[in-house]
Design a protein that fits this description.
With 306 residues, the protein is an alpha+beta fold. It has 2 domains: 5-114, Rossmann fold (3-Layer(aba) Sandwich); 130-281, Tumour Suppressor Smad4, CATH 2.60.200. Helices cover 30% and strands 33% of the residues. It is built from 10 helices and 17 strands. The strands form 2 sheets. The protein has a 15-stranded mixed β-sheet that branches. A hairpin with a 2-residue loop joins β8 and β9. α2 (44-54) packs across α3 (66-79) and α6 packs across α8. Residues 139-169 and 301-306 have low confidence and may be disordered.
Length: 306
């Protein structure tokens, strides 16, 4: 009988999570060789991924938030491994997991070990890899300035609270973006370059993004003065905002100019000018739920004659 080997890389804050412990023990009782390693500081995720691969583990589980997921996915992609990734969402936002339909309960997330893995894309910029999204503009400032203490108390609502409390600071940034048959420049309030669909605790910037189509979704919210002046009303009434986005789907896009534009990469600040974003097709094997909204479905392929 073949023993399946998996290693859970668990964010240090979740070390005492009893639901995680129960889920791991249940998997072991089902015959899995499931080891657990806990992160303590920056660089731990990459080191633990390399140790898992050297140890012959065929499945790696990322237990934590979007940052942990990005670190593990990046390390696996850099290793060029055939091992597959399972998401155990334990963070505040869990943006990629929520968009993909991954269960938030640890035992249900581990059940995805029984679902065949499929290859998905990753994004890449300046030598860094991202699984979900690069964001810019006011929303990125909100994400960067939402305290860990507030997230502990309010959960995902912390991002909304921070955004409302800093609304008076809202101002447009200037950006110039260029890609294949695409060029846009001007003032903007928000920018999303997505392999996934949402960021910052549930803000959907790229509603049609697919993680396995070989393309990045670009969403720009322009900031003409009349939009800035009425944004509060649009937010309160919940209508009309989506129609104002400029959208494109590209294999790569370059930010040629960025003035006052703060960029986050899966929630982490991204430094540098003249940024070139590109998709890395089929770069990582991931266990996602059947019918996940983030991947091309068989019916879609048949409809397009593929």
């Amino acid at each position: 009988m073949t023993t399946h080997k998996a290693l859970l890389i668990l964010h240090g804050k979740q070390a005492l999570n009893e639901d995680v412990r129960a889920a791991v023990l249940a998997r072991r009782e089902q015959g899995w060789e499931l080891a657990v390693r806990v992160t303590w500081e920056g660089g731990d995720a990459q080191r633990l991924v390399n140790e898992a691969l050297d140890g012959g583990y065929t499945h790696i589980i990322a237990g934590g938030g979007d940052g942990t997921l990005r670190d593990v996915a990046e390390a696996m992609a850099q290793a060029g491994t055939d091992a597959s990734l399972v998401l155990m969402p334990l963070g505040t936002a869990n943006d990629f997991a929520r968009a993909a339909g991954v269960p938030l309960q640890p035992d249900q997330a581990l059940a995805l070990l029984d679902v065949p893995a499929r290859a998905i894309d990753l994004g890449r910029v300046g030598g860094q890899v991202f699984l979900n999204m690069a964001t810019g503009g006011f929303g990125s400032q909100v994400t960067a300035n939402t305290s860990e203490e507030l997230k502990k108390v309010l959960g995902g609502a912390a991002y909304l609270f921070t955004g409302l409390s800093r609304f008076s600071e809202l101002k447009a940034a200037y950006g110039e973006l260029e890609g294949p048959d695409f060029h846009w420049k001007g003032e903007l309030l928000a920018l999303g370059i997505g392999n996934g669909r949402q960021a910052g605790g549930g803000h959907v910037l790229c509603p049609d993004a697919l993680a396995d189509d070989g393309l990045l979704d670009i969403s720009i919210l322009p900031a003409p003065q009349e939009v800035v002046g009425t944004l509060r009303e649009l937010m309160n009434n919940g209508w009309g905002l989506d129609t104002m986005f400029v959208r494109a789907r590209l294999p790569w896009v370059k930010i040629k100019v960025a003035q006052g534009l703060y960029i986050n990469l899966d929630g982490e600040p991204l430094q540098g000018d003249d940024l070139h974003f590109e998709v890395v097709p089929k770069a990582l094997r991931v266990h996602l739920p059947p019918g996940s909204p983030l991947v091309v479905q068989a019916d879609d392929l048949l409809a397009h004659g593929k």
